[in-house]
């Protein structure tokens, strides 16, 4: 299936849209040849890689996971009720754009307060139409908040402030419809990355895009869930990577490169000493200091040789 407009319907910190051309040389050859029947993404986030690979490669089934309840809810709505979602967003966009800047600000905080107040009233009950409005509120907040971040505090509350955009595009109808079409062959799961193990076998490609290890104290955007993701979680993920490797699956993982800040930091080389490590250039996508949006390296770790000149670390 080839869908023209498929791409993330949310702006997401750490999204991989800018790296898709690089990733073409890093995906396993078996995926390109149609020899793998299952795609699994345990940290789907904004879904740039998922929407790309499910569009241009052939898989019988896909499984996407995330611990972020709001994100999983939104994917479920896009899959099951995209036309109703589009109608709600159309009305929200029309109403918002007719307001002056101060009234827009007031509406933003009204919707954000409502979103946080009722954050436990919908999720993970039986699916209902109330989910559609909640997904619309999330998309609205994402398109109108500062820098398009999704960030929550320790209480799980969305806490990104208002963004002063002159003419924000809240409804992307064609994108939502295309994404819904691609989600037809996809199961959407709420849960920790380790829950994906039951869907992984020898004919599976798994792409891991965990919350990145911060390069320094000011660079962390890992608060996409209230529980965070620290070094112990990175170590647990490395052990899980090894477990799936023993199943014969093709595995690819991306993360920050500590050597951007400290050439002596071997954290990931030590964790993935049995595998291949490539470095790819990327631009900082979200940073409050525009001067800090320069090019840095990111790590790509695989359990197979890629089309690039691999830097093997064993």
Automatic annotation (TrEMBL):
Alphabetized PROSITE patterns for the sequence: N6_MTASE (PS00092)
Gene3D superfamilies: Adenine-specific Methyltransferase, Domain 2 (1.10.1020.10), Vaccinia Virus protein VP39 (3.40.50.150)
A molecular-function term among this protein's GO annotations: methyltransferase activity
Homology family: Belongs to the N(4)/N(6)-methyltransferase family.
UniProt entry tagged with the keyword Methyltransferase: yes
Catalysed transformations (reactions): a 2'-deoxyadenosine in DNA + S-adenosyl-L-methionine = an N(6)-methyl-2'-deoxyadenosine in DNA + S-adenosyl-L-homocysteine + H(+)
InterPro entries attached to this UniProt entry: Ade_MeTrfase_dom_2, DNA_methylase_N6_adenine_CS, M_m6A_EcoRV, MeTrfase_D12, SAM-dependent_MTases_sf
EC identifiers of the protein: 2.1.1.72
Designated name of the protein: site-specific DNA-methyltransferase (adenine-specific)
Root EC class: transferase
Keyword terms of this UniProt record: Methyltransferase, S-adenosyl-L-methionine, Transferase
GO biological process: methylation
């Amino acid at each position: 299936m080839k869908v023209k407009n498929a791409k993330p319907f949310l702006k997401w910190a750490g999204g991989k849209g800018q790296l898709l051309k690089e990733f073409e040389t890093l995906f396993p050859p078996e995926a390109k040849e149609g020899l793998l029947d299952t795609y699994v993404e345990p940290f789907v986030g904004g879904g740039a890689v998922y929407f790309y690979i499910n569009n241009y490669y052939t898989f019988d089934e896909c499984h996407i996971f995330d611990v972020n309840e709001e994100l999983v809810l939104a994917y479920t709505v896009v899959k099951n009720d995209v036309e109703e979602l589009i109608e709600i967003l159309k009305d929200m966009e029309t109403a918002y754009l007719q307001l002056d800047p101060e009234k827009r600000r007031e509406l933003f905080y009204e919707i954000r307060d409502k979103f946080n107040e009722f954050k436990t009233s919908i999720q993970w009950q039986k699916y209902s139409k109330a989910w559609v409005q909640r997904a619309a509120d999330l998309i609205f907040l994402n398109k109108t908040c500062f820098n398009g971040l999704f960030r929550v505090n320790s209480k799980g509350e969305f806490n990104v402030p208002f963004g002063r955009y002159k003419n924000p595009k809240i409804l992307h109808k064609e994108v939502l419809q295309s994404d819904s079409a691609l989600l037809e062959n996809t199961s959407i799961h709420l849960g920790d990355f380790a829950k994906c193990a039951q869907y992984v076998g020898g004919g599976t490609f798994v792409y891991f895009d965990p919350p990145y290890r911060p390069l320094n104290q000011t660079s962390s955007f890992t608060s996409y869930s209230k529980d965070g993701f620290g070094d112990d979680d990175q170590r647990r993920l490395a052990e899980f990577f090894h477990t799936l490797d023993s199943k014969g699956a093709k595995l690819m993982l991306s993360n920050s490169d500590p050597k951007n800040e400290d050439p002596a930091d071997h954290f990931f080389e030590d964790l993935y000493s049995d595998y291949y490590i490539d470095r790819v250039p990327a631009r900082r996508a979200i940073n409050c200091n525009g001067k800090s949006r320069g090019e840095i390296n990111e790590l790509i770790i695989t359990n197979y040789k890629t089309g690039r000149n691999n830097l093997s670390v064993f």
